[in-house]
Write a structure and sequence with these properties.
- Chain C: InterPro entries: SoxD (IPR006279), SoxD_sf (IPR038561).
- The complex is a heterotrimer of chains A (about 1000), B (about 230) and C (about 130).
- Chain A is an alpha+beta fold.
- In chain A, a hairpin with a 2-residue loop joins strand 34 and strand 35.
- Chain A is elongated.
- Chain B has about 230 residues and is of the alpha+beta class.
- Chain B folds into two domains: about 120 residues, Gyrase A, domain 2, CATH 3.30.1360.120; about 80 residues, 2-Layer Sandwich (Alpha-Beta Plaits), CATH 3.30.70.1520.
- In chain B, strand 10 and strand 11 form a beta hairpin.
- In chain C, the strands form two sheets. Chain C has a four-stranded antiparallel sheet with strand order 3-4-5-6, with no helix packed on it.
- Classes of the chains: A alpha+beta (about 1000), B alpha+beta (about 230), C alpha+beta (about 130).
- The interface between A and B is large, with 62 and 65 residues.
């Protein structure tokens, strides 16, 4: 195919570099510098998509991010698929493959088009709510069909080969938009010495200067843009980010920028010859000041059949001609309510194509551009508008009629002009999106017929975004605002740059016109589209108001106006204007919607950055991790820690199951000696004269008399009396303690201590520091533990010298160590703490000596079984924030007579915490020893009771005990301590019911003799 | 047990020399041992890359807690540098091998050459006497990574939320901040390099992150001999 | 994403370094045993939820580990001041005039919502102070 609409000259494309691409299966060529949209138009491709709801053929309408129709699925391979790319924003590259996202099986012949032919009565607004409400079970079916038919693009089914990342940026002034205002602002701020970031979403910086008919200092406007960009690029304090969209404006001047680094070159970074490089980058910018220079979007007019391919926004016509050397048709009719749009007609005529007429809604337009058009022989029809486009696959004509905008009626006879292109302009809407992302409402300005941003702290507005449209004024405004922003950021000397000269153009005022009246009443006229992407018509908006929706927010939700990726860029104001007309109110009275991030879609890759695959979340390792891996440990995630879960051995060539391994590990500890890497336990160093007093306030039990060399178990409650964490604390010296916490509670407990110290009791002289990572902790436990220890340590291990709950200092395997005689297994146990860098040496020495005792490494699962057999709780597993120490049967660990009202004490005197029928911790022994109850299983007393049954509690921990040769469990049960010996029932989801006896929580060695040997 | 240890233990706080001594024949493992086994860390030296990350393992790390005035005198006397009194200050001694860093209004981090920390702690304790303070040895729990090279700043921009530009982090400044999904202490001891103090259990994650983020520039992670 | 001035580190830091800890200036009864269950319940569970100025406690979790207070406008998300533990706020709901003099914007609407008439026209007229 030839590029039939391509001009022989002009535009900012490189005609020496031909690029071939495929669209909807057809091969085309374009030039370097094209967008996919300009290349498609150059090739005369009229239909690029089918519409969302009615499946009507659609063509390219705009030239920028506001494009509602040309939304494509990109990617030559499955892994490189990208949905919902705007063809107007996608640079053309060699080998590009794209297809329309809507249209199944293809855009030319669409099976859904019957919906469109049946018209609005079949799918009115609220269609989904009204039609598919019942039966609810069918919604999934309906939705699947509708979605497939509507085609919202699709995610790739293969892994994305590219990498993405984040950049944390800080600057004094962030300038968003590199059009005339943005460039001038950036120059002012940069010359003052501010750190400036200038971003722009287009391939090339310059914005409207790149398609302007005007001159700056006697040169084409684009030349000034090139000069400005070159100067900024040479400054060390300026970061230029082209192809970078400011997508979200968040609190306190935090702005997210989405930079596309290789997407203009190929499908993938590798395809672009940039293997290993970042495809897209999210800049997280904290800006001192933000200059929003996002310009404006031209509004199309709303007239009948304004969606037929060949209907374009006027400014887009100029952009295609002047930037890409493409004229998207032969015969143009321009429908406008303002002067500026006349440039489309002038550009069109200068490109050698025919301008059939300019239809101007105003009675007496007489601005400079109007005069130019008339002088060029263009027919100008005043007081009129294009009422309807004819044609179905492409515009074939324009029905023009005189209108009365006040009374919203046609007043003359309809004249049909033959043409293939209708350009329309209903004025300009400032791109206020970012300014409203933090909830600030835009403000209506009657003089502009548009919304401008509300005041946003830290944000400055330059150029079109606050209604400064004329080129000369825009440059001046940008220069002033850039200097103002720099001054506000602390560069007090900042001054506006000297602004170049631009000839002033006289313009006649724009008239307020959004929807064109039709000779038929609105609900009977051919469809007049307000939101092309979501297929919302003027009739739908009107119907919504008739059905009682008065707030524009409700109208929006009811009709889908401005939904999805569109975010109301073209249609919002027209929709509001129509709603306002129907409700007989003014536009500001109807209100505006508040835009939300993101301005245009951001790929998930960019959002995720490098927080994926093995960097998804930190993995924390102990100093012994290598040994665990080398010895075949299976790992369990405990918070971010990787802890050995169990160590399966190979027995007769077969690897043990978890059940087998855990049973073996349990028996080794009960009968010989085992070893656990307990390094993940939280450890907090506590020093100061008031350390002891502080402990007494945060723990439920007493600490006043704990002597150096002794260890005590403590419970920590919140002030509501519920258990929060537990652990042992050792007295290292009179004013020095070492607290241990649960693995998961480490950070939280330290912060808890700091909270109380800093906010309630700052007078207490005490300091807390985390030493969790400093110490490696190894638990040697089992009847043979003393024998093994005696081979490696100089500490006197005699049971009278080194009692249960003592700690001693000495050497273990030649390394200075603190050894604690505390037990979480119920067996004789020594917890060895050494500086973590020496842990591996000590661990290996223990194994060297432990061989003869069959020293058995065990993991968290065995640890759980062993502690549960002893009725030892795990905070967070057996407790859930609703369990008191009394509920756990730990009255012995509560010091009610301590002088200070410790945290939790007051709450424990409430009647509710003294209730006898509170859920209390008990043991459960299944009647069938083979049964291991499910953790979380609900307990009932009467298995025959009809649902809903009376829930009495639930299982908190449950395991198989190789010592008991039976399953066993811990549970919380209402009034449980008074139910010893009773039988309870646990109905399972498969209909079976387990029976269990309520027993003591201590299953093994109730007198605690084994740990005291 | 050494004499010093026994004596100090008698007082209000227990001090503890964690090192077995050179004659004990014990080889320590740095927090990057697992990363080394996994091939993520090489020995020092080799081809020049745009970014070098060098671990300085086994240094003495002490946390000092207390009032600035109290501690300043003792630190000045024992280390020969004054305690950084202003927030986020980092000072080095003349050799550049001992540093004191402001962490919070009552907390400083002291880093000294390997093995010096226990003696220093005892001398400081002796000098501070009955004042209210705390000294905590945390050397086993963290390690120091030095970052240098042309693209070190860009690498940090990918990794930490803090402003690593000259304006945000001039020489002599140190901050605790977010690093990827964990936290680090970020220091600027000299024009040529940045330092990260990372927690032992997160060290491999940090190295993995740095290697991944630095791939496009070329990056080497090395571990210096103690 | 907030930008929070840490009154201890003496500079602005990113929100990720901090963690909110609820309402500020809660006082634990000096003698818990002497207060009624109801008063104790108020202390434990009942919190203000104003639209507008609110005082919150935050902790610089990944920085200096110190708790401090923030005066924040819950409608605009603006942080009006931060101050150390033990200090009192200079801006409160009761002295909105102070706030105006300091050139701080008034609350002009929540997040994502929109007013239809008449609320909207009123908001459109409202000029930030």
């Amino acid at each position: 195919m030839t590029q039939s609409n391509r001009l022989n000259q002009g535009g900012r494309i490189d005609r020496s570099r031909r690029l071939s691409f495929t669209f909807n299966g057809q091969q085309y060529t374009g030039f370097a510098g094209d967008t996919l949209a300009s290349a498609l138009l150059a090739n005369g491709v009229d239909i690029v998509n089918r519409s969302f709801k009615y499946s009507r053929p659609r063509g390219i309408t705009a030239a920028g991010p506001e494009e509602p129709n040309a939304i494509v699925q990109l990617g030559a391979t499955e892994a490189a698929q990208v949905p919902n790319v705007r063809a107007t924003q996608q640079a053309l590259y060699d080998g590009l493959v794209a297809r329309g996202t809507n249209g199944w099986p293809n855009v030319q012949r669409d099976v859904m088009s019957w919906v469109g032919k049946l018209g609005g009565s079949f799918m009115p607004p609220g269609f989904y709510y009204k039609t598919f409400m019942a039966p609810a079970s069918m919604w999934m079916t309906y939705e699947k069909f509708i979605r497939k038919g509507a085609g919202l693009g699709r995610a790739p089914t293969e892994a994305d080969p590219d990498i993405y990342d984040h950049f944390n940026q800080h600057c004094d002034v962030l300038v968003i938009g590199a059009g005339p205002a943005g460039l001038a602002a950036a120059l002012s701020a940069a010359r003052a010495g501010a750190r400036v970031i200038l971003c722009d979403e287009q391939e090339e910086m310059g914005g409207s200067l790149l398609d302007s008919r005007e001159s700056i200092d006697g040169e084409p406007a684009s030349a000034w843009a090139e000069q400005a960009v070159a100067e900024l690029g040479g400054l060390a304090n300026v970061t230029l980010l082209p192809r970078t969209t400011a997508n979200g404006y968040h609190d306190h001047n935090f702005v997210t920028l989405h930079e596309r680094r290789t997407e203009h070159l190929a499908d993938t970074a590798a395809g672009a010859g940039r293997e290993g490089e970042v495809r897209a980058r999210l800049h997280r910018v904290r800006a001192g000041r933000v200059v929003l220079a996002s310009g404006s979007h031209e509004r199309p007019l709303v007239y009948a059949n304004n969606d037929v391919p060949g209907n374009l926004v006027a400014g887009a016509v100029s952009v295609y001609i002047r930037r890409y050397g493409v004229v998207p048709g032969q015969r143009l009719v321009l429908s406008t309510n303002n002067d500026h749009a006349y440039r489309a007609a002038l550009d069109w005529q200068e490109a050698g194509r025919e301008v059939v007429a300019v239809v101007d809604s105003r009675a007496k337009p007489d601005g400079d551009l109007v005069k130019q058009a008339r002088d060029a022989g263009i027919r100008v029809i005043t007081g009129s508008a294009v009422m309807e486009a004819t044609g179905s696959q492409r515009v074939s004509g324009a029905k023009v009629v005189a209108i009365d905008t006040e009374r919203f009626v046609v007043t003359g006879k309809v004249e049909t002009l033959e043409c293939d292109t209708i350009a329309s302009s209903g004025g300009y809407s400032p791109v206020v999106h970012l300014a409203s992302h933090t909830g600030k409402r835009p403000q209506w300005r009657d003089d502009l017929l548009g919304f401008v941003p509300g005041e946003v702290k830290g944000m400055h507005f330059a150029g079109g975004v606050h209604g400064v449209y004329a080129l000369g004024e825009t440059l001046t405004d940008g220069a002033d605002v850039g200097a103002e922003a720099a001054r506000a950021a602390g560069f007090e000397e900042a001054a506006a740059i000297a602004v170049p000269e631009v000839a002033v153009r006289q313009e006649s005022p724009t008239s307020a016109l959004y929807q064109i009246p039709h000779e038929k009443p609105p609900l009977r006229a051919p469809k007049q589209f307000v939101d092309l992407q979501n297929d919302v018509t003027a009739a739908a908006v009107e119907l919504a108001t008739r059905e009682g929706f008065e707030s524009i927010e409700h109208v929006k939700r009811y009709t889908a106006l401005g939904f999805g990726t569109d975010q109301g860029k073209l249609g919002n104001i027209n929709g509001m204007a129509i709603a306002a007309r129907c409700l007989n109110r003014s536009i500001p009275e109807v209100g505006t919607t508040v835009f939300r991030p993101n301005y245009t879609p951001v790929s998930f890759g960019a959002i995720v950055g490098r927080h994926c695959r093995d960097l998804f979340d930190p993995e924390r390792y102990t100093a012994l991790h290598q040994w665990h891996v080398e010895n075949g440990a299976e790992f369990e995630d405990v918070g971010q820690w990787k802890r050995p879960w169990y160590f399966p051995r190979r027995v007769n060539g077969k690897l043990e199951t978890m059940h087998e391994a855990v049973a073996r590990e349990c028996l080794a500890v009960r009968r010989g000696v085992g070893i656990l890497d307990a390094s993940t336990l939280g450890k907090i160093d506590i020093q100061g004269p008031d350390a002891r007093e502080f402990l007494g306030r945060v723990y439920t039990n007493k600490w006043a008399k704990l002597a150096p060399g002794r260890v005590r178990y403590g419970l920590m409650c919140k002030d509501d009396g519920m258990l929060m964490d537990d652990g042992t604390t050792s007295c290292l010296a009179e004013n020095h303690f070492l607290m241990t916490t649960t693995t998961g509670g480490a950070a939280g407990v330290l912060e808890w201590l700091e909270l109380w110290h800093q906010t309630e009791w700052p007078e207490l002289q005490v300091y807390f520091n985390s030493v969790t990572d400093h110490w490696a902790t190894m638990t040697v436990t089992g009847p043979d533990a003393r024998k093994l220890m005696s081979e490696v340590t100089d500490i006197d291990l005699d049971r009278e010298q080194f009692k249960f709950m003592d700690w001693k200092e000495g050497k273990v395997a030649g390394v200075p160590a603190r050894v604690f005689r505390i037990s979480f297994t119920g067996e004789l146990a020594f917890e060895i703490n050494v500086q973590a860098n020496y842990a591996m040496h000590v661990w290996k020495a223990l194994f060297a000596h432990g061989e003869k005792y069959d020293l058995t490494p065990y993991g968290t699962e065995t640890m759980h079984v062993l502690r549960a057999e002893k009725g030892l709780i795990i905070a967070g597993q057996d407790t859930d924030g609703s369990v008191t120490p009394e509920d756990l049967g730990m009255h012995w660990a509560v010091g009610y007579d301590k002088p200070f009202s410790w945290i939790g004490q007051r709450a424990l005197t409430r009647p509710d915490t003294a209730r006898e029928d509170r859920k209390q911790l008990v043991g459960l022994k299944p009647k069938d020893p083979k049964v291991v109850l499910e953790e979380g299983a609900q307990i009932v007393l009467d298995p025959e009771q009809k649902i809903p049954m009376t829930m009495m509690g639930h299982v908190t921990s449950s395991y198989y005990s190789p010592v008991l040769e039976s399953g066993f469990a811990l549970a919380v049960l209402k009034g449980g301590r008074n139910r010893m010996g009773e039988t309870v029932y646990l109905p399972m989801s498969d209909g079976s019911v387990h029976q269990a006896e309520v027993v003591s929580t201590v299953f093994i060695d109730p007198k605690g003799e084994r740990q005291n040997v | 047990m050494s004499e010093a240890r026994s004596e100090a233990s008698v007082g209000n706080a227990a001090t503890f020399d964690t090192h077995p001594g050179a004659d004990a024949g014990v080889t320590p493992e740095s927090p990057l041992q697992w990363s080394r086994v996994q091939g993520r860390v090489t020995e020092e030296g080799g081809a020049a890359e745009q970014i070098r990350v060098v671990e300085r393992p086994f240094l003495g790390h002490l946390v000092l807690r207390g009032g600035a005035i109290t501690l300043d005198e003792a630190v000045r006397a024992e280390l020969g540098v004054s305690l950084p009194g202003k927030p986020l200050g980092l000072v080095l001694d003349a050799e550049g091998s001992r540093s004191v860093q402001w962490v919070s209004p009552d907390e400083w981090l002291v880093i000294v050459p390997a093995g010096e920390e226990f003696e220093l702690e005892n001398r400081l304790r002796a000098r501070l006497g009955d004042a209210h303070f705390a000294i905590v040895n945390v050397g086993g729990g963290q390690t120091l990574l030095e970052l240098s090279g042309e693209k070190a700043r860009e690498l940090l921009m990918k990794s930490v939320t803090y402003d690593v530009h000259e304006h945000g982090l001039p020489v002599g400044k140190a901050v605790g901040t977010v690093f990827a999904k964990t936290s680090v202490v970020l220091r600027r001891p000299s024009e040529e390099r940045f330092e990260l103090v990372v927690r032992r259990s997160f060290a491999d994650y940090c190295v993995r992150w740095l290697r991944d983020a630095g791939r496009e520039y070329g990056l080497r992670v090395e571990s210096a001999s103690p | 994403m907030f930008h929070i001035f840490c009154p201890y580190c003496q500079e602005y830091r990113e929100e990720e370094e901090f963690h909110p800890s609820g309402q500020a200036h809660l006082v634990r009864p000096a003698d818990p045993a002497s207060v009624s269950d109801e008063e104790w319940g108020d202390y434990l569970f009942f919190r203000d939820n104003p639209r507008g100025i609110h005082h919150e406690m935050w902790v610089h979790r990944l920085g200096c580990r110190k708790f401090f207070n923030i005066t924040r406008d819950t409608a605009t998300y603006e942080i009006l001041e931060t101050y150390r533990m033990g200090e009192q706020p200079s801006i409160t709901a009761a002295n909105a005039e102070v706030r105006r003099e300091q050139g701080v914007q008034t609350a002009d609407g929540g997040w994502q919502t929109v007013g239809a008439q008449p609320e909207n026209s009123r908001l459109n007229e409202e000029t930030p102070s």
